[in-house]
Every structure is written in C-alpha cells, then in structure tokens.
Amino acid sequence: GVRVGIMATLRLHQAHVQNNQAEDGAGVFNEGTLLLDGVTVSGNSATGFGIAGGGVSSTGTLTLRNSTISGNSASTGGTGAAGGVFVQDGSALIEASTLTNNTVTG
Length: 106
Description:
Elements: E1 2-4, E2 9-13, E3 16-18, E4 21-22, E5 28-30, E6 33-37, E7 40-42, E8 45-46, E9 51-53, E10 56-58, E11 61-65, E12 68-70, E13 73-75, E14 80-82, E15 85-87, E16 91-95, E17 98-100, E18 103-105
Parallel strand pairs: 1-5, 2-6, 3-7, 4-8, 5-10, 6-11, 7-12, 8-13, 9-14, 10-15, 11-16, 12-17, 13-18
C-alpha cells in the first residue's frame, strides 16, 4: 500500500491502490497530509491491534475527492477499526466520493 509519514504531503491522482495486506492502513496509512483525487482503494485487508483501516487509516489530514473506497476489510482487537476509512486524532473531508461494501470484524 501507500504510507504518508508525519510532516509529509502526498497528492495521489487517478490511481488504484488494490489488494494489499497490513496490520494498519492496508491500502493507505496517513500520518501527514493526503489528497486522494479520483483514486480507487479496493480489496485491501488490515488485521492490526492499533488503528486498523482496511482501505484508509489516517491520523493526519485527509481529503477524499471523486474517489471510491470499496471492498476493503479490517479486523482488530485494538483501539478501533473500519473496513473503509478510519480517522483518529486527525481530520477528514470527503467530497463526491463513494464508500461501499467495506467490512469490519472483531
């Protein structure tokens, strides 16, 4: 997947982030500033004990624009989980985007 570190900035445009596995943020793990514009995040799976977001995990600044987060999964025994998008101690703006068929267990 993709990782954006603390104090880093990434603008991802017209891309696919697919079929990744990780403990946290299997598709995208963001600690900095991230713009996903026209991006599809799908088929990713997170199985961590911390911040588990199958598609996207963010503790930074996240903007989703014209993007699709679909078919991701997460399972966790930690602080929280979301199959699609998990935001903790950060901010998120979601515009004209689709979040569908994401699952979580645990």
